[in-house]
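Exercise 3.2. Students should predict the tertiary structure of the chain below and write it as structure tokens, then compare their answer with the key that follows.

Predict this chain's 3D structure.
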Amino acid sequence: MDVFALRDRLIDEYHQYISGFIAVKEPRLRQFVDDYFTEGRLWPEPLVQLNPAFEPGRFVDKLVQQGVLHSGCANVFRRKDSPDTFGYPILLHKHQDDAIAASASGKSYVLTTGTGSGKSLA
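Answer key:
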């Protein structure tokens, strides 16, 4: 699927739809409205974003088994399908795993990484 072609088609259909409600008789105002449509001022440009794939670390359960995390973490940090299931162990990103290891060693550390990378969990 070509998402840019889809966007163009969607905008064309939307333009046709809203144009059906607009009947401007005054020439200067009609020109202003037509220019507004032509310039694409009623819809934004496409926004392309990349979501990084972070390197995997260890499972929370593994860190509990190794004594790095408190045993209660294995029960709390789980991915659940529904509230009545125990769920699945959570796989941390490597930077989360590294931050937990640094914290467990008693050393100071600074964790800097992008938005949505799970810094709060680390």
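Discussion points: The longest helix spans residues 3-19. The first strand starts at residue 56 and ends at 59.
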